[in-house]
Amino acid sequence: MIVYGSAEPLHENLLKFTTHSGKTVTHEGKQYRIEHCQFGTYNIQEAFSTVVEETDLDPRSFDGVPAVEFEKAIKKSAACIDDRDIQSQFHKREYIDSHDFRSAVSSYQMIAQDSTSTELGTVTSNSRVEAIAEVFSYMHADRASLSAFLPFGINPPYYGDDEDDSKPNEGLDHSEIKFSLRDTAMQLHGPSVFKQPDPSIHTTRALYKIYDQIGIEQQVRDMYGILVSPIAPSFYWKNDSEDDSAQYTIGRSVDAMTGMGDTTGKWEDSTAENGEIHE
Amino acid sequence: MNGETGDSVGSKKDKVDKAGIAICGECSTDTTVYITDNGLRCEDCISIEPDTPATYTPGLRDFEDTRGKEMAENVDNFMDNLADIGFDIELEDGSMYEMQVLHSHAVLTKYGDNWEEFVNELPSIVADHYNSKTEPTKFTDRAPWGAGNHDNSKEEYETHAELAKNVAYYHLRPAILQLGMVAATDEDEEAPTVIGIGDEEIHQYTTDGRITVPIDEDFSLGGDDE
């Protein structure tokens, strides 16, 4: 494991790592590109051809195209291993779990249909086969993202270790960490689920700084996973009881019902004179 | 682009290195790309400056990390201020090993007043290695010639003096490391200390020398043998 003393050498290695993202696959003489192949070292051509040939469905279509049909197709690929006992003998990147592929198709359908998901990138495929190639890219991006977010828990309590560089420092809010990493990546870099990432030194410095502050050693694969993650930053907004937004909303409703306040969302400065209102 | 060829080309700012074949972040062409501050760029796009994105961290935009430069300056200052001490040791084949200043100081750090002990014994140790065609490395005190990863390690040594550098380094490594730590540390910071663990003693290397603590029979690193 390389310890990076600054963001500059990390940026250099991240860009070199990025050059291994794209692989070209072919179907009926046409070439298609699948990205993030550092996270998919199985026989991509064979898996791609199998899915293309075993179904005539289009993953972009939401109506009447159950993702399970694609799951059945990928199961016919030699790259697909569903036996849990055998899966554990491999690294995750060395095989395809049919559930992962089905999940990728479902998510791809949602991105293709849902205009609000543009923050994850827009589907640009012009054909069914091109769309299937993008599903593979999505699945790899998801793997990269999962691996990058592994050091962080899903729910509180916030475990951590001030001495261990593979874990965040103690007492940190993991949702806030995940939000800040993804939000920084989106603001400075933009979506990269379906395309090769293109981080600038400024983006790398900002991510490096966050990792530095949370006490985790900066690694190329993790940075890559943050950049290509198919998870929108808003996913990490808190909306549970831990956050006071729900309580605040309920409180305001009660206040309005009892005539104690208004629901205009305006903030009234109690020290202001002449009833000044600040929006 | 200034028309250079090979693994690196000149840009407006710095020399940039070839990364491999990938998509150029500017023109989206799948071609040979180079490492730039803006990302991966093909030869034609290296000089194109992208629009500056809005950022929460404007301070990182033109940030220059000077820690490496400061460390190099500290080392230069340290080396300039070292007393000009150098041992010239005549070896058994008549060749002369001229020990560099830093290594000579490492002898004093490790052996203190007993420095003559090392200087007097080195010729016979070197001769022994030379005759048996071995050299000490990080992992063993007797490896074949050329097996070490020391810069000076070679398949063939013509004189004892050529081999002496590797042999001396093996014996002085913790002291050299300690001096290196001190050299790279800023004046207002405390230098890290190097700990050496021997079979029967523990050494702590400091700015001023070496402290040795013998390990007696009752010494334990923890745990219970019973």
User: How many strands appear in the DSSP assignment of chain B?
Assistant: 11
Shape, per Cα inertia axes of chain B = elongated
Major sheet: arrangement of strands of chain B: 1-2-3-4
Uncertain runs of chain B are 1-5
- How many strands, what sense, and barrel or not for the largest sheet of chain A? 2 strands, antiparallel
The number of helical elements of chain A comes to 10
- Our count of domains of chain B comes out at 2
Q: Work out the oligomeric state of the chains in this entry.
A: heterodimer
How much helix is in the residues of chain B? Answer: 25-40%
DSSP, total strands of chain A: 4
Keywords:
heterodimer; A: 279 residues; mainly alpha; 2 domains; two-stranded antiparallel ribbon; two-stranded antiparallel sheet; disordered C terminus; B: 226 residues; alpha+beta; four-stranded antiparallel β-sheet; three-stranded antiparallel β-sheet; 4 helices; 11 strands; 30% helix; disordered N terminus
Describe this structure in words.
The complex is a heterodimer of chains A (279) and B (226). Chain A has helices spanning 7-18, 44-54, 67-74, 84-87, 98-113, 128-149, 174-188, 201-214, 220-228, 245-257, and strands at 23-27, 30-34, 267-268, 277-278. Chain A is mostly helical. Chain A folds into two domains: 7-236, no CATH class; 246-278, no CATH class. In chain A, the strands form two sheets. A two-stranded antiparallel ribbon of chain A has the order 1-2. Chain A is globular and about 50 Å long. With 226 residues, chain B is α+β, with helices and mostly antiparallel strands. Chain B folds into two domains: 8-51, no CATH class; 70-214, no CATH class. Chain B contains four helices and eleven strands; from the N terminus they run ββββαββααββαβββ. Chain B has helices at 67-81, 101-111, 115-131, 160-184, and strands at residues 8-10, 15-23, 30-36, 39-41, 88-90, 96-98, 134-135, 143-144, 194-197, 201-205, 210-214. The radius of gyration of chain B is 25 Å and the shape is elongated. The termini of chain B are far apart. Residues 1-5 of chain B have low confidence and may be disordered. Chain A binds chain B through residues 5-8, 11-12, 15-16, 18-22, 33, 184, 187-188, 195-196, 198-202, 205-206, 209, and chain B through 17, 19-23, 25, 30, 33, 35, 37-40, 50, 53-57, 60-61, 63, 65, 67-68.
